[in-house]
Specification:
Helices cover 43% and strands 15% of the residues. It is an alpha+beta fold. It is globular.
């Protein structure tokens, strides 16, 4: 029997001897059913539940093992200390997991996503970008060899989605679709076999939650690990950089993209040089994201969408040859890091 209503989750919690004093359904994501509750000790808890379809459209099937992978990530990953970080970065603590009913209870990282909080003038956006870049480099460097989270085929399939649809996105804005077909064949195909490190799999500002409003440097928690996989770290970096660019471009030019990329590059170089091929891969993923997602998720009007797709195409053409670093390779029209 499914768990899709407030009454359903209240009944489930009763089996755990948890009687919530408050309960509210969270509707920010599309895939899962989620709630925020307070228990009798006034502890705030986030509950996630997976049905074998996405929450917003039951006709689209999605394997429930996504919750198993998230649980494995949250209970397996142990990162080294971060002595040179501006803002603390955390993972949710797991309180309970039922692998049969696909219910996960975990700590509440806060009420804001970084995407929603981007325009808050009290938030130190460059410091947050630096901290996330440094943290992500540590995740990738510390999981190069032994860390395993299993073979997350759903994550690999979803990661391929933008590559598989890149040609049609380019064509919709008047560009040659053949570039998209070539990029998918050459780079999209790599997602199945990449095995360099642990990747979050959906690393973007919407999956960073903040502990407090009106605080310049609140603790940030990295959430939604259901697409975790072993892969190439350049895909995590490219996705976040693309979304950070879109925030900088459309929501205030606060220097998030440059701060994030500079910090990742600095931290990663300290742990071993990133070569031309790695930066080329990063540029391809960033370019694919910029060329595809603004045609599906509205950031601006038709002209601005075409601008994003055109920039993505330019990055793809440059990135296929590799590069020595993001400033040489990506040539993004963005504000320098603050």
């Amino acid at each position: 029997m499914g768990i899709v209503t407030d009454s359903d989750i209240t009944s489930y919690l009763a089996t755990l001897n948890i009687i919530p004093t408050t309960l509210s359904q969270l509707n920010g994501g599309t895939a899962n059913f989620a709630w925020r509750i307070r228990d009798s000790t006034n502890r705030s808890i986030i509950i996630k539940h997976a049905e074998p379809y996405i929450r917003t459209n039951a006709s689209i099937l999605l394997p429930t093992d996504r919750m198993d992978f998230e649980h494995v990530a949250l209970t397996t990953l142990t990162l080294p200390p971060q002595p040179h970080i501006d803002i603390p970065i955390a993972l949710p603590s797991v309180y309970h997991y039922n692998s049969t009913r696909h219910v996960l209870l975990m700590s509440d990282g806060g009420p804001w996503t970084m995407k929603a909080a981007y325009t808050d003038p009290t938030l130190d956006i460059p410091a947050l970008g630096r901290s996330l870049g440094t943290w992500l480099a540590s995740l990738h460097a510390s999981t190069k060899t032994t860390t395993s989270v299993g073979d997350n085929q759903t994550a690999k399939s979803i990661a391929r989605y933008s590559y598989a649809n890149l040609a049609s996105a380019l064509a919709s804005c008047g560009f040659d679709a053949s570039l998209g077909e070539e990029i998918d064949a050459e780079y999209g195909s790599l997602l199945q076999s990449d095995d360099a490190c642990i990747c979050h799999g959906d690393f973007w500002p919407g999956n960073i939650v903040l502990a407090a409003a009106s605080t310049s440097r609140p603790t940030a928690t990295v959430v939604d690990w259901e697409l975790v996989r072993r892969g190439c770290g350049a895909t995590d970096v490219g996705q976040f950089a693309a979304e950070a660019y879109l925030l900088d471009r459309f929501c205030g030019s606060r220097g998030l993209c440059a701060a994030f990329l500079d910090a990742y590059a600095l931290a990663a170089e300290e742990k071993g040089a990133l070569g031309r091929e790695w930066w080329g891969r990063c540029g391809v993923h960033l370019g694919t994201h910029l060329a595809f997602w603004p045609t599906s998720v509205v950031w601006g009007g038709r002209e601005e969408t075409g601008e994003c797709v055109g920039l993505g195409r330019e990055l793809l053409l440059r990135a296929r040859g590799g590069g020595r670093g993001w400033r040489e390779l990506l040539v993004l029209p963005i504000k320098p890091a603050g």
